[in-house]
Amino acid sequence: MSLKWLDWAKRIQSLSQSGLTFSKDVFDLERYEELRKISVEIMEEHTGEEMQKIKELFANDEGYQTPKMDVRGAVFDKGKILMVRENIDNRWALPGGFCDIGLSPAENITKEIQEESGYLVVPTKMLALLDMNKHPHPPQAFHYYKLFIQCEIVGGEAKTGVETKEVDFFPEYDLPELSLNRNIESQLHMLFEFERNPTKATLFD
């Protein structure tokens, strides 16, 4: 199924947001606001979501629009990788989430892993920085970069958090049902390659 409408809606939203940020002319501001409204209408028509919800989630940012950053932790133990079952879709993901303002990538992943899995970790290596649009994730309203950081456990114990309902370790070829918005199977295999080859160079695309 073609998703050109989603690309168009995201591009219109991005252009309108930039125009609203930098334009000083009142008539141009009105035009950019109208473009933003059109992007919301496109999303409403094709997703079935209510317009107000789309405005809050899709067209409520301010300032020049840039990709959002999602950080995920790769924690290995005895040949298995740490994963958490998400409350939101009952599927499994690497612990992580959106980067918070004021925290570095290392601080973000340390916080996310502790909150979602109960383990205390130390980040050791940035493994990959991937453009979500170049990998077969489900369509998303925003443009995301995904940052994968390898970490070592230094304390704590398995414990669920507010957003998770189960914590476990899985071998490469017996993975659970994945939360595909957060991680896909090829990315898990990529991380196991780093575990087998610690000198492997960081990937980016």
Please give a structural write-up.
By secondary structure, this protein is an alpha+beta fold. The relative contact order is 0.16. Strands 1, 2, 3, 4, 5, 6, 7 and 8 form an 8-stranded mixed beta sheet that branches. A hairpin with a 2-residue loop joins strand 1 and strand 2 (80-86). Helix 1 runs antiparallel to helix 2. The chain is 36% helix and 28% strand. The protein has helices at 4-22, 26-47, 51-58, 105-117, 185-196; strands spanning 68-77, 80-86, 92-93, 96-98, 119-131, 144-156, 164-170, 203-204.
Estimated share of beta-strand residues: 25-35%
**Main sheet record:** 8 strands, mixed
- Taking the alpha carbons of the first and last residues, their distance comes to 25 Å
Radius of gyration: 19 Å
Oligomer: single chain
Structural class: alpha+beta
Proportion of residues in helical segments:
25-40%
Low-pLDDT segments, ≥5 res: none
Mean pLDDT: 90
> What is the string of helix and strand elements?
HHHEEEEHEEEHE
What sort of overall outline do the alpha carbons produce when their principal axes are compared? elongated
Distinct helical segment count: 5
Quantity of strands, as a count? 8
Question: Could you list some keywords that capture this structure?
Answer:
single chain; 205 residues; alpha+beta; eight-stranded mixed beta sheet; 5 helices; 8 strands; 36% helix; elongated
